[in-house]
Amino acid sequence: MSSNEQQQAPGLIAAHAQYVKGAAVEAIGNVTGAQAWTSSGEHDKSAGIDAMKQASANRDPATSGYGKVEEMAGKMTGWEGMESEGAQSKKQ
User: Fold this and answer.
1) What is the pLDDT of residues 52-80, one digit of tens each?
2) Can you tell which superkingdom this protein's organism belongs to (predicted)?
């Protein structure tokens, strides 16, 4: 794995974690009626999506993807880009 790929992988993982955190905080806010939590969660989700886009902008899924794991995670979360990149990388 090149140093560029090593830098992108943690960024992509951290971006996914930020999105998941945001979704959880937003859900708690929705359940409890706490607008501050809902807004915070929406902000984290948006920032996570932006970070994912940035981390994957120069990523070649054929050489630096996670294969079947990435494809299945994409299917489970509904992220078509992750699903297709996983499918592309498992072909290699």
Assistant:
1) 888 777 666 656 666 777 777 777 777 77
2) Eukaryota
Q: How far apart are CA 43 and CA 24, in angstroms?
A: 12
Measured CA to CA, the distance from residue 16 to residue 66 in angstroms comes to 14
**Strand extents, DSSP E, 1-92:** none
Model-level pTM greater than 0.85? no
- pLDDT tens string 3-50: 444 445 557 778 888 988 999 999 999 999 999 999 999 999 999 888
Report yes or no: 73 and 92 within 8 Å, Cβ to Cβ.
no
Do 52 and 15 contact (CB within 8 A), yes or no?
yes
Work out the end-to-end distance of the chain between its first and last CA atoms, rounded to an integer number of angstroms.
15
CB 80: neighbour CB atoms within 10 A? 10
